[in-house]
Write a structure and sequence with these properties.
Blueprint: E1 2-7, H1 14-17, H2 19-25, E2 29-33, H3 50-63, E3 69-74, H4 76-87, E4 92-98, H5 110-120, H6 126-133, H7 157-170, H8 175-179, E5 185-190, H9 196-205, E6 211-216, H10 225-228, H11 230-253
Helix pairs in contact: 2-11, 3-4, 5-7
Amino acid sequence: MIDVFLLPGIIAPAAIRYAPLLRTLGENVRAVAKELEVYAAEAPAPHYSIRMEVDGVARAADAAGLDRFHLYGHSGGGAIALAFADAYPDRLLSLALDEPAVDFLGEGDGEYWLDIKQAASLREPEATRAFLRLQLAPDEPLPPPPDGPPPVWMSKRSAGIRAFVAAAESHHVDPAAYRALHAPVYYSYGTRSHPRWTTMKDRLAGLFEDFTAERYEGLHHLNTSHQAEPDRVAAALRNLWAPARRVVRQAQNGPRG
C-alpha cells in the first residue's frame, strides 16, 4: 500500500480537486486528501499562518497512522507542501508540486504579489475573478463560471484567499532547507498558466537535489494536469514513488547476504 497525502488549492475542496486523480491511482493507494486549515471554521483564525497549515498536516498524518508518506500539493496546497518539507523533511518519501502558490524564497514575485493584494482588496465577486485571472497567462481568457448558484463552500473563499495571501507573504524558507531535502521532487506546470511558474520551476530546480519538472501543453492553473490528464499524472507519480518503495521494502526486509 502506498501512503499519499494530498493538499488542495485555496478554491476547490480536496474531494473535488482530486477525484479524477484518485480514481486513476486505484486501490493500492491509501490517500489522505486534507482540506486547508484556513477553512476549518466559518472564518479564518485571527492569527492564521502557514505554520498552522503545516502543523495541521502533521496532526492529520499522525491520526491516519502515516509516519513517512508521499506529499502532493496544488497551488496553495503546493506552497504548504513546501513549508512542510522545510519543517518535516524526514517524513517525506517524495514531494510533488503542481504550480505552488509561492515558494517562500522571496524572489521574483514582488510585482505579482502587489497585483494579488490589489485583487484581494476589491469587492466580491470582482475580487475572486481578479484573483483567478492572475493565475493565467496574460492572453488566456478566464473560464466562465459554472452554471447554477455557487456551491455552499464558495462563501468562505474570499476571506480564505485574503488570509492565505497575508500568511504566505510573511512566511519564509531558507534555501538551505530545500537543498537539504533528499526526497525526490516532481514539479508540474501548464503552458497557459502565469509565466511565474516557469520561473519558479527554474529557481527550485537549482535547489532540490533530485528534481524533475514536467510541462503540460495547453493547461493552466484553473484546468490543471491532475484534473485534465489524470492518467499521465498518475504515471508520473508512480514513477516518482518507485525509488521510495524500494527503500521501504529494503528497510522492512533487512540487509541481504
